[in-house]
Design a protein that fits this description.
The protein has one domain: 7 Propeller (Methylamine Dehydrogenase, Chain H). The protein contains 1 helix and 28 strands. The strands form 7 sheets. The chain has a 4-stranded antiparallel β-sheet with strand order 3-2-1-28, with no helix packed on it. The two termini are 31 Å apart. The N terminus is likely disordered.
Length: 339
């Protein structure tokens, strides 16, 4: 009996060790058209659930501790740029900021945070969210403990992408209409610089040391590289023909920038030291938001037209598989789970 019991203990220990060394995270995907969020197990890359959250979920991010996930909701109808005169009435009651419990995988609360919220970023300490209000030309600052507004800053038309500088906490907001990026001091709640990038800027990502910002400019088909200390454009990196850059993600070592190309249906890999494209990786149709897994070895992409998520192995530059999700996947959030 002792030998059998010991063998059982050893087997259990090995299984426990193997589990501890395996990836342990969830991928949350906001589906804009179906109004729900799909959850993918990062270990198996399989869907483990889908739950409703409200109208037009788009921006989605976890808090730094992974205990909550937030998603923006909008009652404004989907419209192509420049067609505002034909826009259907907006349902402002549907505008909000959804609060998700990642363990129970359900919406636990919804806060009113502004008009037509789209993308957002969370402060490094996890206390505040900075939310772009697309039809109000403003950015709301929300206290994530209370759900209450702590301020509102005016920017220019169609704000979308939001990023927080990891070095100093400054907030960058991309505004599509005039091709501008606003640098904001969140403590003083004021604009400290306006950076002209042109090209309908859609998203922004910072280098790990906070010295550079990378702005995806859709209409120009390029990445604007910004000196984040002087708030000036240093150079523009042209992407392959047909690219409409949308989402951005920086590798863990900071040596590469990954850019989704929209209707280009690919991920462009940029060598940040050489400021040039080093590879392209075909993925699903109309790739939108992208995110890296905690180890930085896999990239997940929301493919808005093919209704799936591509799983890309960064090292081999290959798409490993596609995972069917809801209708119109828009945002991707990676949540590490406690072991």
């Amino acid at each position: 009996m002792r030998i059998s019991f010991s063998a059982t203990l050893v087997a259990a220990a090995v299984m426990s060790l193997a589990h501890a060394e395996s990836p342990n995270y969830l991928v949350f995907v906001s589906n804009e058209r179906s109004g729900d969020v799909t959850v993918i197990d990062g270990t198996t890359d399989s869907v483990v659930g889908t739950f409703p959250v409200g109208k037009r979920p788009r921006g989605i991010h976890p808090t730094p501790d992974g205990r909550r996930v937030f998603v923006t909701l909008s009652g404004s109808p989907r419209m192509a740029p420049g067609l505002d005169e034909n826009r259907a009435p907006a349902d402002k009651r549907a505008d909000g900021f959804g609060v998700i419990d990642p363990l129970s995988r359900k919406l636990t609360d919804r806060w009113h945070v502004g008009s037509d919220p789209e993308q957002f970023a969370i402060s490094k300490d996890g206390k505040f969210a900075f939310i772009a209000n697309e039809d109000d030309s403003s950015v709301s600052i929300i206290d994530l403990d209370s759900g209450q507004s702590r301020g509102k800053i005016k920017v220019s038309e169609e704000p979308e992408g939001v990023g927080v500088n990891p070095a100093n906490g400054e907030v960058y907001v991309t505004c599509e209409e005039k091709g501008e990026v606003f640098a904001i001091d969140p403590d003083q709640q004021r604009v400290i610089s306006t950076i002209e990038t042109g090209g309908r800027p859609r998203s922004v990502a910072f280098s790990r040391d906070g010295t550079r910002a990378y702005v995806a400019c859709e209409n120009g088909g390029y990445i604007a590289v910004v000196d984040a200390r002087e708030h000036k454009v240093l150079t523009k990196i042209q992407l392959p023909t047909g690219s409409l850059p949308m989402g951005t993600a920086v590798s863990r070592d900071g040596k590469e920038l990954y850019v989704s190309t929209g209707r280009g249906n690919a991920i462009a890999v940029i060598d940040t030291q050489k400021s040039e494209v080093s590879a392209t990786i075909p993925v699903g149709n109309r790739v939108w938001s992208i995110a890296l897994d905690p180890s930085g070895t896999k990239l997940y992409t929301a493919n808005g037209a093919s209704n799936d998520v591509s799983v890309v192995e960064v090292k081999s530059r290959k798409e490993l598989r596609r995972i069917k999700v809801g209708d119109g996947p828009w945002g991707i959030a990676i949540v590490g789970l406690a072991r």
